[in-house]
Amino acid sequence: MYAQMVKSTGKGIKPREEMSAQERAFQDRVDADERIEPRDWMPDGYRQNLIRQIGQHAHSEIVGQLPEGNWITRAPTLQRKMILLAKVQDEAGHGLYLYAAAETLGVSRDDLTEDLLSGRMKYSSIFNYPTLTWADIGAVGWLVDGAAIMNQVPLQRTSYGPYARAMVRICKEESFHQRQGYDIMMKMAQGTEAQHRMAQDALNRFWYPSLMMFGPSDTESVHSAQSMAWKIKIDTNDGLRQKFVDQTVPQAEYLGLTVPDENLKWNEKRGHYDFSQPDWDEFFDVLRGNGPCNTDRLGARRNAWEDGAWVREGLLAHARKKAARKTAAE
Amino acid sequence: MAGNDKDALLNFLLRMGDSALILGHRVSEWCGHSPVLEEDIALANTALDLIGQTQLWLEYAAEIQGEGNSADDLAFLRDAWDFRNFLLAELPNGDFGRTMMRQFLFDAWASILLPRLAQSSDPRVAEIAAKAAKEAAYHLERSADTVVGLGDGTAESHDRMQAALDYLYPYVGEMFLSDEGDAALAAAGVAPDPASLRNEYDALLKRVMNEATLELPDTRFTHSGGRDGRMHTEHLGHLLCSMQWLQRAYPGSTW
Ligand SMILES: [Fe+2]
Ligand SMILES: [Fe+2]
Questions:
Q1: Which residues of B fall within a CB distance of 8 Å from A96?
Q2: Is residue B217 part of a domain?
Q3: ipTM metric
Q4: Total domain count for chain B?
Q5: pTM of the complete model
Q6: Which residue of chain A is at minimal alpha-carbon distance from B152?
Q7: pLDDT tens digit string along B11-64?
Q8: Which residue of B has its CA nearest to A186?
Q9: CATH number of the CATH domain containing B206
Q10: Are A65 and A11 in contact (CB under 8 A)?
């Protein structure tokens, strides 16, 4: 997802007998679906787990601006240009909400940014794939935002109050993102032959990377088990992936496009589609920094940060001068 | 409408629409690359407003032109010599400081012109301008704040802003040039004579640059050629190359 393979304590769920009274009371509140707020006591593992997840999610929103931003200057109509600008602007806003949620856990936005740039923190693997044609912008909205919605809707019920509330605001905007993407795909798939070809090619390239967004199967993961007990994570990766496939395949059919999976078949007995797993070696390669765009994406963020240093310092210096002048006048 | 009046109005609408389009395009180049997240959002917002204004101005321009074009046709299928934007709008972004200085110099002009246009004798112009004026006022507030903040910030930010002003100032005068068409529009109450806005503009600039501790160049020289299409900079062609690519490469497609 936007947060993939987030580490928890690494020890699996702590048995109740081993919990302190404080930890037990905390787990009871989580179990009763009470919201944990910044001032409440929380286990350190819970705090660290959340910082990693929210931070990774925030970075994904920010880096996620780049593949779509790549087409803003080439959008084919004024209307499309405006829609895409509004969409990418929303993603920056999502980053802002999420950094603010992370800050309530005692970590600053600048610290998180440094962690992203140094490679200590990750962002979603999906944004390391290139957008090569205009149809890719449709595919990103349709598939990538579609997958994001799958994950984010349940996170509105996550146990940490500021994170859950950020998710509520974000989810409100995401359905517009997916709709505009599907609308582009529709125009392309039903357009000229060249447009149709672009649409099919975009689906071919984005299908498996979209399935990877949910992360590898985590039924065996000690990290996921603890995250789920704390309700930082709500569904399993496989569960969400299945839901995504079930929802997306009929949409592809409606577009007249072919999902690039020979094993894709409706399974009457399961009431779900059977489908092929993505190439998980490729996924781990991308996470290690070897995706097609990792170097460029991080390079772009690093340039923005480094080239912008004089701006941040200048504005800060001015704010200090202004405050000093105000104090002097009082 | 007599032929001359029609030409004058069309030129005026293209100037408004093209300036908003080209500047909006330039600003949108920042998306995802700004120094601060809040600035990224603000710049995208400015670009969005400008492209929105473009649509309104060019739609009306296409109607007046009467050749069955749409706003998109005008934006994506004209070549550089038919564009009527101010040269200021097409200049490359440079660093963040130059982008914000260019924005301020443009916003200051727009914020003086648009409220007057909102009183235009042409109801359509008045309607578009009334909407755009609100946006311009907001843009000006932001860009002026940034110019002051960076001008009166660190030594480095000050020097960069002064360099931006020195580079851009020779393009300011084009926004206040007038020709016969402008005189006709002014006489008909459609739009004020551009030259008549200069004093107010100078006063605004003086005030903001003073606060920003920046020095206005002591020159009235101005580059021109954008507003009448006589001579654009070399930069416009490259901008159009990316902006018009899809429409040119796949003519007749629906997007
Ligand atoms: Fe988002
Ligand atoms: Fe989104």
A1: 37-38, 41
A2: yes
A3: 0.96
A4: 1
A5: 0.96
A6: A318
A7: 999 999 999 999 999 999 999 999 999 999 999 999 999 999 999 999 999 999
A8: B255
A9: 1.20.1260.10
A10: no
